[in-house]
């Protein structure tokens, strides 16, 4: 007897069903919560924020500041912050610098399709494990806000040396969406799995 995971458009929620009969939504939430708790280990999240932009500096970096504000509100320590140009080597150098002291690095900007967008090209080859679901969920949530334009996002996430790395678009709306609704709810879970 297998379980099926399906998405209810009407309620915009995922449900689990068995033999074509959906299970009570409350029971499902409780089961998922219990499963998550079994996998969680005590972990201290230490964050790094990297903004990729040729035109912005730290003073003009509203997206980087938004990420930091959200993390600070969640009582997450931020130990690294930088703004780097859209250059593969600059992004990689800063990322390696960040993971020396951080176990969660959020890189914003440079994930689109223009000729100088190279964050994905810089980071993807370095990922030891990819979290494909992160990009898929980000685009799904973005679709609810901006429609089909969400397909232009190449958001990606994964791990390097047990550290969680997230590459997200650089708009303030995008960083807020990704940080609040995807990264914060799952970062303890991700780091627990990545360091087992």
Topology:
Layout: E1 3-8, E2 13-18, E3 21-22, H1 25-39, E4 46-52, H2 62-73, E5 77-84, H3 88-98, E6 104-108, H4 119-123, E7 129-130, H5 132-146, E8 156-160, E9 163-168, H6 172-194
Helix pairs in contact: 2-6, 5-6
GO cellular component, one term: cytosol
InterPro entries: MoaB (IPR012245), MoaB/Mog-like_dom_sf (IPR036425), MoaB/Mog_dom (IPR001453), MoCF_biosynth_CS (IPR008284)
Family: Belongs to the MoaB/Mog family.
Describe the structure.
One of its GO terms (cellular component) is cytosol. Keywords: Molybdenum cofactor biosynthesis. The protein is α/β, with parallel strands linked by helices. The chain folds into 2 domains: about 5-40, no CATH class; about 45-195, Molybdenum Cofactor Biosythetic Enzyme, Chain A (3-Layer(aba) Sandwich). Helix content is about 40%, strand content about 25%. The chain has 6 helices and 9 strands, in the order βββαβαβαβαβαββα. It has helices at about 25-40, 60-75, 90-100, 120-125, 130-145, 170-195, and strands at about 5-10, 15-20, 20, 45-50, 75-85, 105-110, 130, 155-160, 165-170. The strands form 2 sheets. A 6-stranded mixed beta sheet has the order 5-4-6-9-8-7, sandwiched between helices. A 3-stranded antiparallel beta sheet has the order 1-2-3, with no helix packed on it. Helix 2 crosses helix 6. The longest helix has 23 residues, at about 170-195. The protein starts with a strand and ends with a helix. Residues about 1-5 and about 15-25 have low confidence and may be disordered.
């Amino acid at each position: 007897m297998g379980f099926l995971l399906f998405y209810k458009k009407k309620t915009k929620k995922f449900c689990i069903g068995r033999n074509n009969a959906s299970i009570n939504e409350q029971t499902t939430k409780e089961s998922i919560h219990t499963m998550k708790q079994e996998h969680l280990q005590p972990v201290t999240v230490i964050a790094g924020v990297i903004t990729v932009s040729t035109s912005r500096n730290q003073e003009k970096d509203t997206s980087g500041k938004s990420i930091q504000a959200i993390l600070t509100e969640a009582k997450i320590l931020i130990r690294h912050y930088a703004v780097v140009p859209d250059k593969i080597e600059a992004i990689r150098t800063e990322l390696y610098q960040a993971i020396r002291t951080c176990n969660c690095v959020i890189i914003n900007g440079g994930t689109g399709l223009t000729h100088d967008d190279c964050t994905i090209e810089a980071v993807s080859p370095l990922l030891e494990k990819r979290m494909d679901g992160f990009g898929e969920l980000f685009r799904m949530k973005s679709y609810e806000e901006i429609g089909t334009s969400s397909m232009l996002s190449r958001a990606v996430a994964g791990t390097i040396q047990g550290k969680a790395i997230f590459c997200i678009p650089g708009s303030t709306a995008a960083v807020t969406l990704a940080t609040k609704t995807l990264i914060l709810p799952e970062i303890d879970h991700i780091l627990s799995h990545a360091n087992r």
